[in-house]
Amino acid sequence: MLGNPLGNILLAGILGATAMAAFLYALHFGRIANGDFVRAIGSIGSKTEYNSIPIGLAIHYVTGILFAFLYALLVGMVPDEAYVTALVLCGFFGFCHGLVVAVALIYLVGIEHPLRRFQKIGAGVAVAYCVAHIVYGVVVGAILGSAADYSAYRPRFGAEIQKLDLNRAHATDDKRSHEFWC
Fold it and tell me: How far apart are CA 161 and CA 140, in angstroms?
């Protein structure tokens, strides 16, 4: 998997989302903070807890994978290819991501959620979700950082793709030329 950039990103998203869920449910079951986010996410649209777990898990894992693609894009733009760089950057991205989610959580979920039990949000819950996103970022960074070459995560745009194709064409022409003359 570590040689395949797409596989790395998918694995990073799945493992990052799983680590984040494990962290939040550890806080939830330890009665430290309300970390029952799967039911909270799943019940936003259905307005009931019935079948909210599969819906919440699907949303959580799909967004975890999508954000792993964004994190990979950001890591791919950094010229330094050290493992620690990916860990620190993704942890920082997770912190920023967590701040946005914490603010949205306090405002949107705390005020607009259809179920009363999810409307009770305090600073502890916001901090827990921010830290959970740092956990997500570090796990994603660990997987992405294990790649030998971060350039695989860089987006390829028109001119760059054309340049790569021309380089391949020249290499093929040179080989044919060599075969012709030798």
Answer: 27
